[in-house]
Amino acid sequence: MTYTTASLLGVVVALVVDLAVLRTRLVTTRRWWLSYVIVVVFQLLTNGWLTGRRIVTYDPAATIGDGQVVLLGHGRIAYAPVEDLGFGFALVLLTCVLWTWWGRRERDGDRDG
């Protein structure tokens, strides 16, 4: 499986869990997107520093682009492969979905007791 495929799969799974499985529907809220903008800025800064300095490298055959490490272009944003944005989105969304879902369960459980 390529990094691109894994990234797309991660995004789809995160969206399905949010919208259909746990039904927290975070991606339908303005609060989620405003929060995510803050996260993605720091993700780009961190990924850019790590990949721009070649501390982290990627197999060019597994990503979009030709493997050139550039600020923008060749399948990269802030030096990192665009797939990193998909993985970051999926990880942050799943974390927030689970946090929200567990919080609701705990809150609703307190009402029953």
Automatic annotation (TrEMBL):
It is found in: Membrane. InterPro entries: Lycopene_cyclase_dom (IPR017825). It comes from the Bacteria. Residues 2-101 form the Lycopene cyclase domain. It is a multi-pass membrane protein. Keywords: Carotenoid biosynthesis, Isomerase, Membrane, Transmembrane, Transmembrane helix. One of its GO terms (molecular function) is intramolecular lyase activity. The chain crosses the membrane at residues 6-26, 33-50, 85-102. GO terms for biological process: carotenoid biosynthetic process. GO terms for cellular component: membrane. Pathway: Carotenoid biosynthesis. This is Lycopene cyclase domain-containing protein. It comes from Lapillicoccus jejuensis. The lineage of its organism: Bacteria, Bacillati, Actinomycetota, Actinomycetes, Micrococcales.
